[in-house]
Design a protein that fits this description.
This protein has seven helices and 13 strands. A five-stranded mixed beta sheet has the order 6-5-4-10-11, sandwiched between helices. Strands 1-7 form a two-stranded antiparallel ribbon. Strands 2-3 form a two-stranded antiparallel ribbon.
Amino acid sequence: MPIQQKRRPKLLKSGLLFALLLLALAETMRAEETREPEGVGVDRHEGQAVPLDLPFRDENGEQRLLRDFFADRRRPVVLVPAYFTCPRLCSYVFQGVAEAMNKASEDGLAPGRDYQVVSISFDPRDTPDRAAQKAVQSRARVTNPNGTPIDPSSWVFLTGPESSIKPVMDAIGYRYRTDGETDFTHTAAIALITPEAQVARYLFGVRFAERDFRLGLVEASRGRIGGTTDQILLYCFRYDSVEGKYTPFAMAFVRIGAGITLLVLAGAVFFLLRRERNT
């Protein structure tokens, strides 16, 4: 009996040590999976101004300045860094942006009217012809609420020289590197830019939650677009710069709960006083 009692603590300690080792191994594997390659990633530059007087060419071969897309001081801009011959990741990002645009449109935020989407290739070898191919493929996935195609001007695809590309990518903190002779290693992210051309928010990945995309646009517009419901949601949710998404704001729910409690108590007091006067 005493021997069994001595063995039990040892077994518990061994089991606890084994569990800790498993947790450490899982954490190491997770960190390895999510680690960005050297020289690749996003340095968050919220508040950084994006240079606007840089020449690019759109998918029609026409010269454009970034300033052209900030003429409407009400609309935020969704900036999508990519390269148009990317065989994998960029295509997924474009698809994710298209899906997010469709969901936002269903909820009343229309591309072109409420926000502008601009895709910039960070490959100086990309041409307007390549941009046109990618534009046709990507826009075909997006429709207005009534099922009609979106206006091509609401989602443009730009190419340009390195002297135009690098200042924009540096401004939004987007880092990438060449991978062989034709490809690039890069991350999946988009930047939401205010109408005043300042970096507001980042969304990461190849799928963008409807709430994150919509609230990011509303917040980037500084309340110029969206409605009362969006303002309530922004009161209850806060942007998590680490995760790149909107998460519940605990204090907001505490305040709402306290407010409801006060209303219930006030109502009960009013009811009791009124009944007392009537008796």
